[in-house]
Write a structure and sequence with these properties.
The complex is a heterodimer of chains A (520) and B (84). Chain A is built from 17 helices and 22 strands. Chain A is an alpha/beta fold and 520 residues long. Chain A has 3 domains: 141 residues, Molybdopterin biosynthesis MoaE subunit (Aldehyde Oxidoreductase, domain 3); 255 residues, NAD(P)-binding Rossmann-like Domain (Rossmann fold); 115 residues, Rhodanese-like domain (Oxidized Rhodanese, domain 1), CATH 3.40.250.10. Chain A has an 8-stranded mixed beta sheet with strand order 12-11-10-13-14-15-16-17, sandwiched between helices. In chain A, strands 3, 4, 6, 8 and 9 form a 5-stranded antiparallel beta sheet that branches. Chain A has a 5-stranded parallel beta sheet with strand order 18-22-21-19-20. The two termini of chain A are 44 Å apart. Chain B has a single domain, classed as Roll (Ubiquitin-like (UB roll)). Chain B is built from 2 helices and 5 strands; from the N terminus they run E-H-E-H-E-E-E. A 5-stranded mixed beta sheet of chain B has the order 2-1-5-3-4. Chain B is globular and about 45 Å long. The N and C termini of chain B lie far apart (46 Å). Classes of the chains: A alpha/beta (520), B alpha+beta (84). The complex binds zinc ion. Zinc ion binds next to loops of chain A.
Chain lengths: 520, 84
């Protein structure tokens, strides 16, 4: 339970009265008013609370902790009103069978309450000054990257590994208009590690009905820069670079070789053909889209395929005279918003290692009746672009497999594990479906789902944890992720459970300790 | 050369849809190739686009304008589009 109280909190009494005969541990925490803050001497303070929401949100935090940690009961109170030095501002008590979960749950609650509850602190200093402290308000300042992606991580075919692939990717989006707005928004919120935005235009009032990244305040400012500003608010964990110039042969794409995918979200053919040429030469996948009234066309071009390039599609290169862009033809905002989001979808499929249908087919959509035509593409024999050999770009798959082997300092082999068995707390991060009930070796392991990163983070830090998965890939990615967050007490078991099967079928001096361990 | 009559289903997109005033139609034609058919349609609808810049897909496959036609083919003429 959680409540807001306006009278002094008696911590000792609460601890004494909070009992359960099955509880082997109680962890209680008292947050008290101290007499200094930022080198200023504090006389007293006042907590202002939005009661209804704070109670609801506090109860939600307690419920979350009950779900995350196997504890018996949780109680917490936060004060409101005027408090003197030394008074208790917040009290948290956790009852559980064992101490580890109680500590973890208690820490989770204080951290989360500080972040999420609508409670404001006004400090009164001894010199007579008064100040509101940005200590606890419905918080954006301290959000956790893993919380941000938590709903995406739990989808089985994304998972920790998929999220890591997004993080390692760098995508260039050329054109931050009608197609670019939804493409950028979706790529940035998915957590693509680095995004480069190219657009030489300025925001115009006539853009706003379809280019949803911009507000009326942005009119007259650079699209690339306004888009960056907006997208950084949407996801602060993505590195966004703006390039406010037109992409052409005179002003090429910066850092071309470092992109894993390029999205063409422009409204002119010259740029589309230019991007097709440079991406083909550099060996970078290119996703092109265009819209006209209710219709749209979508292509993904991969260099190492026999599906050809954008230039293969017509015998001559059309000039911009034969097309009418949105400016003259007219467009309803929903059309580019759907199609740009589809471009982001195709890029996401590619990052996950799936081959999108648009890689082999031109997809023609008619949004007036939601009909779709998929036209198979083939390489044109006399295509001038396809005739030039791409200069070997490292594909995203290759890049991923290389980075996966680089950071293996967290890995522990089965042989080492068998020799240092007692050093580690074993954490089984496999899916329920991957575990078999008759496994003996894993019966004392703690099961925590790989996507439940916040629970892993709140494990007591005085132990070393060895993560185990099916093949040792997810556990290495996860251990590295936790290590990046400063938790160097996480390790990964090389080769996972499958490796164990291989080892135990052999019998020599190297495998002896493992077989001893298994037989025990 | 003998002129054979074929029934061809045609789908129009973007500018060609506007200029022909229809989404699709089935025509009976003696055209042997996509480019001959396109020339016929240019006469009928005064298309503003040159055949060389128009993309064509026959039976769900991107093809060239020189490709020959068979009875019952489904043809899609796709003008260049750039809007975004
Ligand atoms: Zn080509």
């Amino acid at each position: 339970m959680f409540d807001i109280v306006s009278t002094p909190i008696d911590g000792a009494l609460l601890t004494k009265e909070f009992t359960d005969s099955s509880a082997g541990a109680i962890v209680s925490f008292e947050g008290r008013v101290r007499n200094h803050h930022n080198n200023r001497s504090v006389k007293h303070l006042e907590y202002h609370v939005y009661r209804e929401l704070a109670i609801k949100e506090g109860q939600r935090v307690v419920a979350e902790a009950m779900e995350k940690f196997p504890v018996i009961a949780i109680k917490s109170f936060h004060r409101e009103g005027q408090l003197a030095i030394g008074e208790i501002a917040i009290w948290i008590g956790v009852l559980s069978a064992h101490r580890a979960e109680a500590y973890a749950a208690c820490q989770y609650i204080i951290d989360t309450v500080k972040k999420r509850l609508p409670i404001w602190k006004k400090e009164f200093y001894t010199d007579g000054a008064v100040e509101w402290v940005g200590c606890s308000h419905p918080g954006h300042t301290e959000i956790d990257e893993d919380d941000y992606y938590s709903r995406q991580l739990i989808q089985p075919d994304v998972g920790i590994a998929g999220q890591d692939r997004f993080r390692q990717a760098r995508i260039a989006v050329v054109g931050a208009g009608g197609l670019g707005s939804p493409a950028l928004t979706n790529l940035v919120s998915a957590g693509v590690g680095q995004i480069d935005i190219f657009d030489h235009d300025k925001v115009d009032v006539t853009n706003l009905h379809r280019q949803t990244l911009y507000t009326v305040d942005d009119i007259g400012h650079s699209k690339a820069e306004m888009a960056k500003k907006r997208l950084e608010l949407i996801n602060p964990f993505v590195k966004i670079t703006s390039w406010p110039h037109k992409v052409s042969s005179e002003q090429p794409l910066e850092s071309l070789q470092s992109y894993d995918v390029v999205l063409d979200c422009t409204d002119n053919l010259e740029t589309k053909y230019h991007l097709n040429r440079v991406c083909h030469q550099a060996g970078i996948p290119l996703i092109i889209a265009a819209v006209h009234h209710w219709q749209a066309i979508l292509h993904s071009f991969f260099v190492d395929s026999d599906s050809g390039c954008f230039n293969c599609l017509s015998d001559a290169t059309p000039s911009d005279d034969c097309v009418s862009g949105c400016t003259t033809a007219g467009i309803v905002g929903v059309v580019p918003n759907i199609v740009g989001a589809l471009q982001a979808n195709e890029a996401i499929q590619l990052l996950l290692g799936n081959k999108p249908r648009s890689a082999t087919h031109g997809i023609i959509l008619d949004l007036k009746n939601l009909s779709q035509q998929a036209m198979l593409r083939t390489k044109r024999d006399n295509c001038s672009v396809c005739q030039t050999e791409p200069t070997g770009k490292v594909t995203f798959e290759k890049k991923m497999s290389e980075t996966a082997t680089i950071d293996s300092s967290c890995e522990i082999s089965w042989a080492n594990y068998a020799n240092t068995e007692n050093r580690f707390v074993m954490i089984d991060i496999r899916l329920e479906s991957e575990r078999s009930a008759d496994e003996i070796f894993s019966k004392n392991w703690t099961c925590i789902d790989a996507s439940d990163i916040s629970r892993l983070k709140y494990l007591p830090q005085d132990e070393d944890y060895l993560l185990v998965c099916e093949r040792g890939q997810t556990s290495t990615i996860l251990a590295n992720r936790l290590r990046r967050a400063g938790l160097t007490n996480f390790y990964s078991l090389t080769g996972g459970v499958l490796e164990l099967g291989k080892i135990s079928s052999q019998s020599n001096s190297d495998t002896a300790p493992i077989n001893r361990m298994l037989n025990r | 050369m003998e002129r054979i009559e074929r029934q061809i289903k045609i789908l129009y997109f973007a500018k060609l849809r506007e200029e022909s005033g229809r989404d699709e139609e089935t025509v009976t034609t003696t055209a042997n190739s996509a480019s001959e058919l396109y020339a016929e349609l240019c006469q009928r609808y005064s298309f503003s686009l040159d055949a060389s810049v128009t993309q064509v897909a026959i039976n769900e496959k991107f093809s060239t304008m020189k490709s020959s036609l068979s009875d019952g083919d489904k043809i899609v003429f796709i003008p260049p589009v750039a809007g975004g």
